[in-house]
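To close the chapter, one final illustration. This time we ask the reader to focus less on the individual chains and more on the assembly as a whole: which components sit near each other, and how the overall shape emerges from the parts.
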Amino acid sequence: MMTKPWTLREGFAVGGTLIAFGLLLTLSFGPVRWDAFEWPTNGITMSALVALLLMMHLLRSHVYVFRFLSTYAAAIPAIVYAVVVTIVMGLTRQSAEGHGIHDMLTFWPFVLTYVYLTVVLGMVTFRRLFAFKPAQWRRDVPFLLNHLGLFLTLTTATLGNADLRRVKMITNVGQLEWRAINAHMEVIEMPIAIELRRFIMETYDDGSPRRYASELEVVTRTGKDFLATVDVNHPVKVDGWKIYQFGYDTAMGADSQTSILEFVRDPWLPVVYAGIYMMLAGALLMFIGQKSNTRPHHSPQRQTPTS
Amino acid sequence: MTIWDSFTYFAILAIVLWATGAYFAWRDRRRRSIVATVAGLAIFLSFIVALWISVGHPPLRTMGETRLWYSFFLPFVGLLVYGRWRYRWILSFSTVLATVFICVNIFKPELHTTTLMPALQSPWFAPHVIVYMFAYAIMGAATLMSAYQLFKMHRTASSDGARPFGHRVATPSTASPPMIFDSLDQLVRIGLAFLTFGMLFGALWAKEAWGHYWSWDPKETWAAITWFAYLVYVHYRQLPRQRPRLALWMLIGAFLLLQMCWWGINYLPSAVGASVHTYGS
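The assembled structure is written out below.
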C-alpha cells in the first residue's frame, strides 16, 4: 500500500477515506447546506475551485498526489464510488425532508464522492489541455469536450442550484395576480403580474387531457405588457424567468377557472447548457470517430504520468 | 386498435426472414444473410410506421411500444456487428432475443392506448426514446459477446487454476481473449455515445416540460448509474494491466444496472409513485 506509483488500490483507498470523512462530517455538522452557496458565494467557490485545480496542475511535478489525481488509477475508483453512492440513492426513497441516505444530495459522503470525481475530472482536463496537440485532435478534442463538458455541467448545475428560483402562482380568470408561493410555502411578490384570460382544455375520448394551456396577459415591472399562451412543453420567457403551465383545478377539469403557473429563474443555465452541448458534441465525435480512431493507447506514460 | 390485429402477421414474417438471415450467417453466406435480415427489418419497420400513423403520435410511450423498438433495433445492431466483425452467431442471438420481445407483445398486449399526456407531446420525445432503445440494443449485443467470451474462457482455461478474474495480462492486445475487446470497445463506445444522447436529450426536454433539466427522479438516478457504470469499463480498458474477465464482468454488471433503469424501477419500492417515467396505460 502507498508504494509509488499508486495504483487502483490507492485510488480506492483515497475515495474510501473521503466517504469515511463524509460520515464524520455528517455526524459533526449535519447535512450539507447548499442554500449557503447563494450568489456571490457560488461564483467565488467556482473561481476558487478552478484556481485551485490550476495550481495543483502546475505543481504536479513537485507533489505526487496532484500528479496521481489525473491518472486512470484515480479516475476509475472515483467513478466506481460514484456508481456505488448513486445506487444507494436509487434504492432508497429520497425527499428534501429526509435525513442521511434519504436525502443524498445533502449527505456528505455522497457530496464528497462527487466532489472527488469533479476534482479528478478537473485535473484530467487541465492535463490534457496543457498537453494538447493539434495533430492529435481526433483524440484530444472529443476527450476535452467530454471531460470539460461534464466538469462544467457538474460544477455549475450544483453550485448554481442555490440561485435557482421556482415559485408557483395561482391565477384566476379575470384577476391580476403578482403573488407567488415558494418552496417553503411563503407568499412572495413577483416583478411580473399575470392576468389569466382563458384556460384551455382539450380531452381525448376517454376524458384524459390532450392539451391544457393558459392565455395570459403578462405585465412586468420593467414596463412590458403582452399577451401570451403557455402550453405544457412551451414555457414563455420574460425578464430572465420562464413561465410554465403547471396545473389547474382538477375538480373542475375543462371548466377550470384557475390555472397554476410555475415561474423558474436559473441564471446559471447558459453555463450548464454549454457543458451539456459540449458533452453532446463529444459523444457525436466519439461515435463518428470510431472507425479511424479505435485502438486505445497503451503507452506506459498513461499510468505513471510524465511531467 | 385495428393495426395491432395485424401485428402477428408482420412479426411472423419478420422473424422468419431474420431466422433465414441467421441461418445463412452460420453457413457463411454473407450476402444472402444480409439481404434476408434487411428484408425482415423493412417489414418490421413498416409495421412501426403504420402504427405511428394510425395512433397519431410516435409509438414510444408504453413498455409494449418500447419493446417494439427494441425488437427492431436488436436485429439491426446484430446486422451491424455481423457486417463489421463477421461473428456468425450474433444474428442467431439477436433473432432469438427479438422473438422473445415480440412474443411478449403478442401474448401480453397491454399497449392499445392512443392517448398521450401533454408533457409527452414534445419534439424531444421521439429522439429521446429511440436513441435510448438503440443504445440498449448495442449494449445488449456487447453483453451477449461478453457472456459468450466468458463461457469460452471458462472452458479453455479450466486447467490453469481457479483465479477469480483470470491472470493479469501485461498487454491486452495479445492472445485470444483480447481479440474480442476490439469489437467490444467499439460497441460500448457507440452505445455510450447514444446513452449520452438519450440522457442529455432527456435533460433538455425536462427543462422545457418540467422546469428543470435534472431532478434526480428515480429514472434519472438510474440513468446516471448506468452511464457511470459503462464509463468504468471504458476507463478500465485504458489501463496497461488488466484482468480480461473482470472487464467482461463489468459489461454484464453494467447491463444489469441498465435493466434496473429500463424497467426495474417500475417495481422498486423507492421509485414507485416518485417518478414521472411511469410506463403503462
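DSSP finds nine helices and no strands in chain B. Chain B has two domains: 1-110, 119-158+171-267. With these observations in hand, you are ready for the problems at the end of the chapter.
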